[in-house]
């Protein structure tokens, strides 16, 4: 669970949690909205009661939690794994190579 008063554009702690098989229960804002598929790879909360509801659901439904954790791990790898990182850096290098010399 990660209730915060700040808004991050790409919360790195989310990748760590997803890679370790944790289900994210986070605020519906910032980078969490791009990272988490609500109800599939984690939960996006809009109010304090949502945190209680979804954390309770994860505590009492272990098979659902395990499936969601596996889906979160796959999503994390797709978004920020080695292959995704290499592809994004390749785009950066290609854009740099198109910059004309002064």
Could you explain how this protein is built, in words?
- By secondary structure, this protein is mainly alpha-helical.
- The chain is 59% helix and 8% strand.
- It has a two-stranded parallel ribbon with strand order 1-2.
- α1 crosses α4 and α4 (62-80) runs parallel beside α5.
- The longest helix is centred in the last third of the chain and has 19 residues, at 62-80.
- It is elongated.
Briefly characterize the structure.
This protein has 102 residues and is mainly α. It has helices at residues 12-19, 32-35, 48-60, 62-80, 82-97; strands spanning 24-27, 42-45.
Distance between the termini: 50 Å
The percent range for strand residues is: 5-15%
Could you list the spans in which at least 5 consecutive residues all have pLDDT below 50? none
| Overall SS class | mainly alpha
Q: How many strands, what sense, and barrel or not for the largest sheet?
A: 2 strands, parallel
Apparent shape? elongated
Q: Given the structure, what is the number of helices?
A: 5
Question: Helix amount, in percent?
Answer: 55-70%
The side-by-side strand order for the widest beta sheet comes to: 1-2
Summarize model confidence as the mean pLDDT: 88
Radius of gyration: 17 Å
Instruction: Kindly state the number of beta strands.
Output: 2
Order of helices and strands: HEHEHHH
Fold blueprint:
Layout: H1 12-19, E1 24-27, H2 32-35, E2 42-45, H3 48-60, H4 62-80, H5 82-97
Helix pairs in contact: 1-4, 4-5
